[in-house]
Here is the input.
Amino acid sequence: MSPLPPVRVVLVEDNDTFRETLELLFGMRDEIQVVASVSTGDKAPPIVSDLKPDVVLMDYRMPGLNGAEATRAVLDACPHTHVVCLTASVTSQEVREVLDAGAVACVTKDQDFDKLVATIQEAAAG
Here is the structure.
């Protein structure tokens, strides 16, 4: 039985250090392949439209578009992509906004990394 192909992920995160750390950590995992990373929500839709990733890992608080607005734009650009919101802290109102926008999950940045990987895999599986 052949192993499953890696989940193709686009990272959308305005904190350069955190984004680069995620790229490094995901790069050590066979089950995740980061195909692109961008620093703002407005840069995500054209990248997603072009690359058609399985999952977009979306920060909530960013300059310009917030996570909910960027999620809507990403899903308009590529409806079959799944969005997982990743944020340092989020209010219940913001969670509702991002889920109403079409995200399939919302997790915090302090969550266990293995749990984040599992959430991404679950999102990709639908």
Q: What stands out?
A: The beta strands are 7-12, 32-38, 55-59, 82-87, 105-108. DSSP finds five helices and five strands in the chain. The mean pLDDT is 92. The CA atoms of residues 49 and 77 lie 5 Å apart.
